[in-house]
Sequence to fold (809 residues):
Amino acid sequence: MIEAHAAAVSGGAAEHAHDEDHIHPPPATWFTKYVWTYDHKTIGKQYLFTAMFFGLIGGLLAMLIRWQLAYPGQPVPWLGSIAKAMFFFDDNGAILPEGYNQMVTMHGTIMIFFVVIPIIVGAMGNFLIPLHVGARDVAFPFLNALSYWLYLPASVIIFASFFVDKGAAAAGWTSYPPLSAVAEMAPGSGLGQTFWLLSVFLLGFSSIVGGLNFLTTIITMRAPGLTMWRLPLVTWAQFVTSIFQTLATPVLASAVCLMLVDKLTGSSLFLPAGLHLTGDKAVGNSGGGSALMWQHIFWFYSHPAVYILVLPGMGVASDLLATFARKPIFGYKVMVFSMSGIIGLGFIVWGHHMFVSGMNPMVGTSFMMATMLIALPSGVKVFNWLATLWGGNIRFTTPMLCALSFVAMFIIGGLSGLFMAATPVDIFIHDTYYVVAHFHYVVFGGTLFAMFGGIYFWFPKMFGRMCNETLAKLHWAVTFITFNAVFFPMHILGEGGHMRRIADPTNYDFLLPLQPMNVFISISAFVLGAGQFIFLGNFFYSMFFGPKADPNPWQSNTLEWTTPSPIPYYNYEKIPTVYRGPYEYSTTVAEGQADWLAQSTPGADPAEHH
Amino acid sequence: MENVAALPHPGVSLQHARAKFGMWLFLGSEVMFFAGFIGAYIVLRSANPGLFEREFAQLSRPLAAINTMFLIASSLTMALAVYSSQHGQREKVGNFLMATIMLACGFMVIKTIEYTTKFSHGIFPSTSVPFAIYYTLTGFHALHVFAGILALLVLWGRAQAPASATAMAGACELVGLYWHLVDLIWIFLFPLLYLLKFP
Fold:
């Protein structure tokens, strides 16, 4: 293995060094430094800030949703009086049922497409991948800038759709036809839905461009000595995610194009014959199409999208757990194989969203089996994380608390997923709050905690300053407690039959006894929402006034910690040579020696000895 | 898994090797994009085979056959352009590129004739599901041909000005890869839409 590395270093060295060591001049103007920039770190921050803005909007929508469910039909305090003119609200400032549908739709769309994916892939991936492979930038800096500048118009379009005639899309983030395809069916299914489709198409384009850029970067730009098996797991996770992004997102694009054809030309690809709106009036020129087809094509992308959301979170958690347990990650290669297993299976399980949509029971059973198989690689990962903690010298910093929360919440979200994977159980809990609880445990409890952990962890590298640790811990505590207070009772609501997208639960007698729980959830949600301002305040204060950070405040091994904080635009003065894997904590400790060994410190690789 | 594997053979720049790898990934995503459409076509057609056969009988096979010839010929001229660019024959590169552009434009002209004839007979995407999927498949393919023509024109312009021979060869190969995929998609669309008949 050592000979192979030597060959890698010397064989391609002449040309490699010439190509890679060259430092380009710094961006000359304000415009090329902050706006149309090729620097992957700045593009990552552009993603981060745009997504944080949309996080505020998505969060506000969540608060409105919770207000309506706890106090249906009552005017929204102060906001209602301002927002009367919007389609969402009636004259008293209370939320209209149609408006409620739009809020639910836009909350889901914004949080998934415009907050979580941009932060976990756009911001984290952009910032970390070139650093972790020891490169000056991504493989295609122009495409990288283009990817952000496709995301931005997409977010402008989705934001503008709130203000078009009759408001934003209202057919759910899944946009099932015929509800989404026929303008008369819901207020938002006219222009609002068309905006939604255009926006998602642009975003898909941005995703594909980003994915192929990351893949090319990781495969072709690794520093000398940095084999694939020496990459940090967060970069492995981005690698695996990028395969999803490159190969699954285009299928979403084709689904969106087909629906655009329906909406713009009046065709009926998704509209079966005999579709009546009210009474005898047939809808448009329906006939010959298949509504179920949308669900198949849409979920072919959108189920893998769930793994696009969670895999990078798994990667972040792995890095954080190893760093703060001061131990090598348990079963490094198995972690990679299990992620690969998740993507392999992830492509063939989309049908489990459609158990009650109508399908051959044999097909349903095979989707059920494939879905349950995903529990295996996921379980392997969880046990590996626990084994990493076992006997570790654990440091309870905020990033570590967030990573631990990720593991705990992912276990709950993963287990509830198993129940829904079983067809007979799913028929009972389908479209109830049980589902809502499940995916919030995975995406909020899982990915968002990993994201917070990642931001606290890499903040010194991004801005050269440290976050306030006390405020960060407070933010973590508030978020962790209220998150569970909000989403755990939703399992019980779901078991009680509380439907997923109803605007007024008090209309149903059988839900009345559960209404106090809705009130409790809403109050917890308001605290959860307010708690995020601790994060924002800490973030922006520390960005400008936090204490200056050391190059390596967490005593971590990976390459980015060998650069100054903040990182210069060229990343590495000299392209580093890598001598070992990323998790050499406490492996070769002599008395009085540091318990970590950076990847680029010359010397033997401890892994070679066993 | 060594990163030597990523290093290209001598004479090809590292950046070109990367661009080529990225292009293959992009082509993979294009295949998936059309796979979504073709999947929809299969679902819709198998639900209503009789209707599809009746409607597609109105499509013009001779025009589509000529178009197929055009695209196959353009693939040949494209391949010749790539070959010439790799052997430093600048003049030939320009000529072969122009031939490719001409053939591609011929394809677009015939496609326009096909579309306008259909429109004049009152056949639109809203006419029936078979025509909706026909217009979707051929329309998005035509958009790809159009994008290809733009890329070829830029390339042709570069072939006129003195530029580095290796850079030209690199760009030529990338556009060539894309162009062959656009042809290949048509090779699938032609039988699916114009020829296929179930006994």
Summary: The interface with chain A takes residues 1-4, 6-7, 10, 13-15, 17-19, 21-22, 25-26, 28-30, 32-37, 39-40, 43-44, 47-48, 51, 124-126, 128-133, 135-136, 140 of chain B (CB under 8 Å). Helices of chain B lie at 14-47, 49-56, 61-86, 90-120, 129-160, 165-195. The radius of gyration of chain B is 19 Å. Residues 14-47 of chain B form the longest helix (34 residues).
